[in-house]
User: Which sequence fits this backbone?
């Protein structure tokens, strides 16, 4: 049995356009790292957090990583195990890229591995959802499930929890731009209308059925045609600077699709080449700079593996 | 070039549970037959209709078969071709099983074949939709597309028309019961609420994404878990005698799923064996008999081929 481990877990794009609340996928970069040591002294302590500008709690009861590890240890029947955690934030907080999820998933993957993997990644999902509950106010799975499983993931149902791993075509790249403005998840959720027209819902479920079909058929054009959101995006895009201009720039540059990541403010485009993804991120970042808004950009294929052990 | 042809086109189940307005599939039985002859005299005539109890118009301008054939001939550039049509209704009208669609599709498949197939089955869909417009008041595709293409079909979008043929597992059987009561399609549509809760729409699109995934993965249990409709069925089921009792009987007898076909009153169950499908149709039919309601029953695998040429 190992005494220490270092784990990377990936960022994720949730609320994938027409797949609001049910569809997410993981990317190779960015992501977070957790270093975990078994220690003599009973209980969980957060030894160090880097890269968070002091924004995350060191109190083990309040930190999402330690809190979800605690749930896990209780479940496993080892509530008194001594654990020291270092969290290295390598991605921005509040970006809409599943920042809390990446940290939580790295922590759970680490503890499960230290204990010789009593649970499968799928079985870790409910524990990671506990972390999301602490971070966002509700225990959603559309970031943690793709972060744990890799790839595209459908949350068909929460009660009972029913998670389906979907395939995707090779050669689909993701261009991400995080405009550095604040869009708290809670506010972004509260903006959304509670009632919608049935005919709009029908359009949306035609599109999600088309997107899922496109993923299985590895039909990138169908994926692109289906990635439209007439219900949530029109509201959420209001909080994102120059959203429709960014979309226009991406689509005119050859993107397959463009949308909001999670509840924003990050946006993402699918592209058919890595070079096209780089071109689009640079073009959008330059535009944001011209508006006086700094941004971070990421280019990555869709992540296939979920968390990985480093070193 | 042939001078006459006899074509069978299959019945279809549209509005497949969580796939309201976007998903349909074809069955092997029942269905309709069209006999078509080329004649000297210019124009389209309906020579004979059998099996309709005199309910369908012999006027070629009002009959859905001749009207859609007329649209087709205009498009093909042969508006004056002499055509005589016999329509043999082998399935009930107003059953929710795509009765008008089966007739229209048989007619279009027949004329296209007589002219050596200038159009593909997919290209015939818009002409068949013209027939549906005449029959139902709006030109929907979720009966005619599966009747033309066979199998499960997704109508992702109407503008532009985007139709995707979906796979399905072998060994999935369909048990259909048509309780002989009247549920006009127009009334059934008007009952549906125009606005729905977003959270219910999310549940629905999680389920349609699950159903589409199940079809691709050939996962019959996932198909069954996903076939739930919380938006339309609760309203439409009111018009169907003892709907929830029929569901209970089907599910307790081992059905994979149960739902309304089209706008009803027919209901259908998916089963894993033909014997189970037969058992369920008989059980439900007996129950309806005990309520004083006569019914017709059909057992069939999912149709893979669309229309076929007879003789």
Assistant:
């Amino acid at each position: 049995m190992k005494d220490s481990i270092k784990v990377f877990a990936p960022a994720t794009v949730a609320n994938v356009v027409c797949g609001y609340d049910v569809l997410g996928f993981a990317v190779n970069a960015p992501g977070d790292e957790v270093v975990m040591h078994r220690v003599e002294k009973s209980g969980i302590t957060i030894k160090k957090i880097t890269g968070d500008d002091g924004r995350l709690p060191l109190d083990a009861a309040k930190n999402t990583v330690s809190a979800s590890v605690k749930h896990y240890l209780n479940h496993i029947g080892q509530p008194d195990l001594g654990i020291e955690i270092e969290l290295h934030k390598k991605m921005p907080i509040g970006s809409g890229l599943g920042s809390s999820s990446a940290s939580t998933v790295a922590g759970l993957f680490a503890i499960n591995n230290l204990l010789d993997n009593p649970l499968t990644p799928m079985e870790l999902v409910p524990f990671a959802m506990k972390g999301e509950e602490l971070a966002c106010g509700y225990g959603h799975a559309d970031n943690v499930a793709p972060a744990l499983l890799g790839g595209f993931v459908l949350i068909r149902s929460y009660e009972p929890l029913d998670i389906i791993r979907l395939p995707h075509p090779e050669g689909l790249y993701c261009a991400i731009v995080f405009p550095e403005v604040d869009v708290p998840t809670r506010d972004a959720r509260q903006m959304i209308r509670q009632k919608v027209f049935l005919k709009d819902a029908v359009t949306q479920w035609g599109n999600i059925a088309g997107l899922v079909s496109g993923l299985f058929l590895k039909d990138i054009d169908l994926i692109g045609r289906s990635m439209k959101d007439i219900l949530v995006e029109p509201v959420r895009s209001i909080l994102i600077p120059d959203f429709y201009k960014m979309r226009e720039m991406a689509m005119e540059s050859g993107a397959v699709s463009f949308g909001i990541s999670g509840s924003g403010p990050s946006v993402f485009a699918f592209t058919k080449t890595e070079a096209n993804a780089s071109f689009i991120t640079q073009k959008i970042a330059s535009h944001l700079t011209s508006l006086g808004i700094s941004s971070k950009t990421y280019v990555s294929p869709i992540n296939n593996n979920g968390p990985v052990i480093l070193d």
Summary: The mean pLDDT of chain A is 94. DSSP finds ten helices and twelve strands in chain A. Chain A touches chain B at residues 18-23, 154-157, 162, 164, 166, 192-199, 201-213, 216-217, 222, 225-226, 231 (CB under 8 Å). The longest helix of chain A spans residues 198-217.
